[in-house]
Amino acid sequence: xxxxxxxxxxxxxxxxxxxxxxxxxxxxxxxxxxxxxxxxxxxxxxxxxxxxxxxxxxxxxxxxxxxxxxxxxxxxxxxxxxxxxxxxxxxxxxxxxxxxxxxxxxxxxxxxxxxxxxxxxxxxxxxxxxxxxxxxxxxxxxxxxxxxxxxxxxxxxxxxxxxxxxxxxxxxxxxxxxxxxxxxxxxxxxxxxxxxxxxxxxxxxxxxxxxxxxxxxxxxxxxxxxxxxxxxxxxxxxxxxxxxxxxxxxxxxxxxxxxxxxxxxxxxxxxxxxxxxxxxxxxxxxxxxxxxxxxxxxxxxxxxxxxxxxxxxxxxxxxxxxxxxxxxxxxxxxxxxxxxxxxxxxxxxxxxxxxxxxxxxxxxxxxxxxxxxxxxxxxxxxxxxxxxxxxxxxxxxxxxxxxxxxxxxxxxxxxxxxxxxxxxxxxxxxxxxxxxxxxxxxxxxxxxxxxxxxxxxxxxxxxxxxxxxxxxxxxxxxxxxxxxxxxxxxxxxxxxxxxxxxxxxxxxxxxx
Length: 512
Fold this sequence. Notes:
Blueprint: H1 4-16, E1 29-31, E2 38-39, E3 46-47, E4 56-58, E5 64-70, E6 77-81, E7 85-86, H2 90-99, E8 104-112, E9 118-120, E10 124-128, E11 136-142, E12 152-158, E13 163-169, E14 178-184, E15 187-195, E16 201-206, E17 209-213, E18 227-229, E19 235-247, E20 255-268, E21 273-275, E22 285-291, E23 297-303, E24 318-325, E25 330-338, H3 340-343, E26 346-352, E27 358-364, E28 377-382, E29 388-390, E30 399-404, E31 410-415, E32 424-429, E33 440-441, H4 449-452, E34 456-463, H5 471-479, H6 489-496, E35 506-507, H7 508-511
Parallel strand pairs: 1-9, 3-10
Antiparallel strand pairs: 2-4, 4-7, 5-6, 5-8, 8-9, 8-10, 11-12, 11-34, 12-13, 13-35, 14-15, 15-16, 16-17, 18-19, 19-20, 20-21, 22-23, 23-24, 24-25, 26-27, 27-28, 28-29, 30-31, 31-32, 32-33
């Protein structure tokens, strides 16, 4: 019996022979044993059935290009182009994927050489997953470097197509820093983000109610920094940090962000109060809190302060957890989940799968601010067995912030694998056995987009529904407690007109 890939190869050769201008006859077709080089690299991946078309650029030299996409059910898609940039019809793509969940997707590529001969490459075989990915991705877009931070914004991308919604941009917030957006259970109806500078505060949205609060308690190191929603939606764990930076003049690193001190606290949304316990506010550095999906434990990273005179590269974080009874607001004892000595490095950004079984985290040589650390890799730990392993999705450059899809079958992470400078969002399928499959880059309408777009995708978070809060309401709240600042709605509308019409979804190309 012929394999699916072999059958498709024969059918594609037949379909392309004698059809249309420049069509190849069998005598003018040469089989190439290797797979074609594509950008982005969409070969041997598992794709969500609700993902946008995976437009790609054929990196093989030629004067004409033909592509066939086929699966077990439905009509194949044929694309003929004089341009190596291949755009897939969205409606037909969506129908092909939806009808073939759990089945293979075969991609055949043929390239015509200047002498008229067609090179027919080996079939690229992907898999269409049964499970969907959360439809929306929220991220901050920020320039690389240290002097261009005053142009940034938080955006929401619809992963089923190529539209992007600006959530909030800091050009209407006196160019103050906007950061650390966080969602409760991947829902946009309970979300927060920070504003720094003169308009500083934490904007919290709960079921359509917006407010800006000051989380700086009288005796705390700072206002809340890294947040984590309790699954009940009524509590938020924050780190409070005294943050510093060091710059390097040589070597693979350019900057190190580190803490001089840090503790944890919990903000109660209903009572507008902050509490903590001596067990998570010690002389050690407690940082990066995350709740277990059942809310029974608060996981966090902890490190001993470096001895006086020692460099920050001696600070390594372990992973700890403390039991918590939300009904009684009672804390239990602290346990070590994974020590830095056992892990062989510094642990940061712990994220637990929605079923509570698996833990994703970054492992680096020291510290916790991995976005600038080329030695940062992703690891996964089975919390049931204690087994852990380095993921195959890692590259030889930075792998950093990551978040789970609400069904636990997908995760997104930021990586600088292309150039070592710009962080891009990559997605990977996480199967029911804990297997992690090859990662793929966020698709764009034009794959060449990544050649010229010079901003980092920061803190990618998957959410289940579109962002509903209007930018007008957000800006009113952001400016509310700033004396002498008047909210000019007409000016705001004019400034946002190029990116959004009253908050409507727009195509990415319109923004960038």
